[in-house]
Amino acid sequence: KSKRMKFIICVCLLLGGYRLAAQSVRLIPWPVSIDVSEEKFELRRGNIYCSEEVLLSEAEFLKKKLEETGLPGRIEKRLNQRCNIVLQLDEQCRTEEEYRLRMTPDRLTVSGKTPVAIFYGIQTLLQLLENGERLKGGIAGPCCQIEDYPRYRWRGFMLDESRHFFGKEKVKQLLDLMAYYKLNKFHWHLTDEPGWRIEIEKYPRLTSVGGKGNWSNPQDTVARFYTRGEIKEIVAYAAERHIEIVPEVDMPGHATAANKAYPQYSGGGTPTHPDFTFHPGKEDVYTFLGEVLKEVAGLFPASYIHIGGDEVAFGSKAWQDDPEILQLMEREKLKNSKEVEGYFMHRMGDTVKELGKKVVGWDELLDAHPDTASTIIFWWRHDHPEVLRASLQKGFATVLCPRRPLYFDFLQQKADKWGRVWDGFCPLEDVYAFPEKQEEEWNLPAYSRDFILGIQANLWTERIHNEKRLDYMTFPRLCALAEAAWTLEERKDYGHFLNRLEDAYRLLDRYGIYYFDSRNPAAH
Ligand code: TNX
User: Out of the domains of life, which is the source (predicted)?
Assistant: First the structure.
């Protein structure tokens, strides 16, 4: 009996020891499987070998990052004794993004089926180095064997630069951090009421006139926007980090900035939202927006264009007594403004498809009955789970970005002073627990879950008037989002995550980012 007891105690100690060892390695997002051994690696330089030419850009990326941490790097032409980092394609991995990291004291090997998988292996490696033990002229840490792949394919973050404009350095910093935490879609909200932020060659007034003004200061006299050159630069920067940028041109509502530049396309609005809509009854409007989308499609290689479609009712009352819209209604047998909106979205959706792209829209787009094969729905109205159910039941690829808990313009706690509230807050813990915590309320049929493409957080910026505020509202919620998007449900553990956040805080300090500190959540 006592022998058996001893055996059980031994097993417990071993397992406990293993758990502790695994927990001493701190990664965000937490991987699918990790084994930590007693052996240690020591890295004093990176002699990187990659098995195929397609991996060269990943090797270059790694080399640059190693140099930033003070380790000299070089890319080796042939596999030899010196090579202590090996990147290699491996057909055994099942999915596109799945990678493996094998470590021995003298070699770290990252493998995967595709360059993107290798890229994620590199991010994991960089985190291990970031959190490793600093030696004189090197970094050491325990050898780990990791197998990893994401829970969701769409791991997104949206930034609204119409309400306030932040510029390319801030965007690049966000892309850096997104990549580090394995997020892969950057949704760029570039047009709305206060400002139009993307240069369109054919319609220069969109930026020269529409680019002036922001939420805090509508009278701002400087036009703030991205030139075509800057857009290309940022797209390339994101591509190096395997982030796809999804541009949004919001229509037919939220169109005020464009209408300020070209009043002939305005469909009117209300006293609180003047010139809020594009005019759905004028053919010229479809030509104008078709040209805009054509340029946008040329600038962004992503296979999607987001055409908005949200909150049109804020301005479409003005349509009710417009003679051209009444004519359109008669001609197309449309009964009300909602159907006019559907007609408009259909036509613009067709334009997007003709450009060879998929249509992305806010969940109101469902009312226009788009086709399931080429449309992605963004469910944002958290208080309408029936909309999510409808989207999934009809088979639409659906991205979950409900206001609660995924709107990062919403406050994280009661004490915070400046931000939006919607019958509650969006605390770190709720972001982390998404979607399991909410899922019970949605009542989704099991099969319909397969249509959930992924999750995304949205940073609207009416109340984000400077970079410091942007940082405070984004971090570390972005880390929680990343883990919610990547880590398998059964591997999530909030306590463990808070522990690992220590490393994120150190990194954010180094970046000079002003974040919400979960260890000391004072009001800001
Ligand atoms: C709703 S979400 C909006 C945005 C606002 C946001 C503020 C959505 C599709 N439309 O225009 O900025 O709420 O939280």
Answer: Bacteria
Cα–Cα distance between 462 and 421 in angstroms, integer? 13
Report the DSSP beta bridge partners of residue 358. 304
Catalytic residues: 311
Residue 205: both structure tokens together:
């007034």
Distance (Å, whole) CA 238 – CA 220: 30
Q: Is the CB of 310 under 6 A from ligand 1?
A: yes
pTM, two decimal places: 0.95
Q: Where are the domains of the chain?
A: 24-148, 150-165+176-183+405-524, 185-357
Atom 12 in ligand 1: residue holding the nearest Cα: 460
Ligand 1 atom having least distance to the Cα of 410: 14
Give this complex's ipTM.
0.95
Q: Would the CB of 408 count as within 6 Å of ligand 1?
A: no
Would the CATH topology of 24-148 be identical to that of 185-357?
no
- The CATH number that domain 24-148 falls under is 3.30.379.10
How far does residue 520's CA lie from ligand 1's centre (Å)? Answer: 30
Q: Which of 310, 407, 420 to mutate to test the pocket of ligand 1 (most atoms within 8 A of CB)?
A: 310
Residue by residue, pLDDT tens for the chain (524 residues) are 567 776 666 565 555 554 445 557 999 999 999 999 999 999 999 999 999 999 999 999 999 999 999 999 999 999 999 999 999 999 988 899 999 999 999 999 999 999 999 999 999 999 999 999 999 999 999 999 999 999 999 999 999 999 999 999 999 999 999 999 999 999 999 999 999 999 999 999 999 999 999 999 999 999 999 999 999 999 999 999 999 999 999 999 999 999 999 999 999 999 999 999 999 999 999 999 999 999 999 999 999 999 999 999 999 999 998 999 999 999 999 999 999 999 999 999 999 999 999 999 999 999 999 999 999 999 999 999 999 999 999 999 999 999 999 999 999 998 888 888 887 899 999 999 999 999 989 999 999 999 999 999 999 999 999 999 999 999 999 999 999 999 999 999 999 999 999 999 999 999 999 999 999 887 77
Q: Whose CA is nearest to atom 4 of ligand 1?
A: 460
Query: ∠ at Cα 369 (394, 405), nearest 5°?
Result: 65
Architecture of domain 185-357: Alpha-Beta Barrel (3.20)
Output Rg (C-alpha) for the chain, integer angstroms.
Answer: 25
Domain 150-165+176-183+405-524 sits in which CATH superfamily?
Glycosidases (3.20.20.80)
Ligand 1 centroid vs 404 CA: distance in angstroms? 12
304 backbone dihedrals φ, ψ, rounded to 5°: -135, 150
Atom of ligand 1 nearest to the CA of 378: 9
Q: Which atom of ligand 1 is nearest to the CA of 462?
A: 12
- One DSSP character per residue, 187-220 reads EEE-BSSS-B-B--TT-THHHHTTTB--SS-TT-
